[in-house]
Amino acid sequence: MNLAHSICQDEVIRLCQQLPSFPLIISKILSAVNDTDANLNELVSYIEQDPVIAARVLSLANRAGSRTRNLSEIMDLYTAISLIGVGNIREMTLVSSITGFAADSLSVQIPERFWRHCVAVSVCTQELARQIDMSRITSEAALVAGLLHDIGKLWLYSFRPEAYQEVWLEARRRQVGIEDAEQAAFGVDHAVIGAWITQYWGLPDSISHAIKHHHAPGLHCSDPLVALLHVGEVMTNALDLGGAQGSRVTFISTGACEKLGLIWGCEARPDFISLFGRITARAHHASMLFS
Q1: Tens digits of per-residue pLDDT, 95-151?
Q2: Architecture of the domain whose range is 9-19+109-290
Q3: What is the DSSP string of 54-92?
Q4: Domain residues of the chain, as ranges?
Q5: Residue 86 and residue 270: Cα distance in Å, rounded?
């Protein structure tokens, strides 16, 4: 295999400006996520600027209203959000924004299974966050970290397509993780590239940190989002969700499991059976976004 030249942070940032525009609404929502009052006002202002999301919110509110009470048609976003709940609307807005970004990125010939895998990991990571109920992590942060955990691969697909195809073939030939083959070819792997990109996009440091270390959490397991994202991707592959090429489970961090209080095998918590069911159902439903 002819090794590609090394990739540096400056090159990543310069070229990622050629990718579809990343939705700023995601950074804004995450930055205000702990301020409930500000969330309602700001969320309405964001939604008003996006007619597609506004239409979805109003449609969802009217369907909910027709089932639960005798309401006239809802045309006001404040009323709609009050009926559905800020948290649900915030999540829908994040997913809608990422879906639009993903649809635009498909023009660079990235395999559809890439986004299917990312969606499945986001569902798994978010459901884990809700199950474990860690106060330091919002479900929105878990969702976005999962959706963007492999964004470094999007960069490689876009700007090193031929070399990256060789890397995939080399990883399969040597039976090693794709991140090891990337490191050998480029001097950096997709997790580090993803961290550089999300920092450039202005996402919270906690998300960039989790993306950077999700394959090898090691000494970073004390960060709950790192642990969540790592375990979320392993579970996604173990449950064979998302259609990732060559999904396999070769490693799960003991430290990450301990941080999350997870015990596998016969001593596993009974409620984890229902967790696996929710993850599978949501992942299959979410994958229809890319059908």
Answers
A1: 888 888 888 877 666 777 888 889 889 989 998 888 887 767 888 899 999 999 999
A2: Orthogonal Bundle (1.10)
A3: HHHHHHHHHHHHHHHS--PPP--HHHHHHHH-HHHHHHH
A4: 9-19+109-290, 32-107
A5: 31
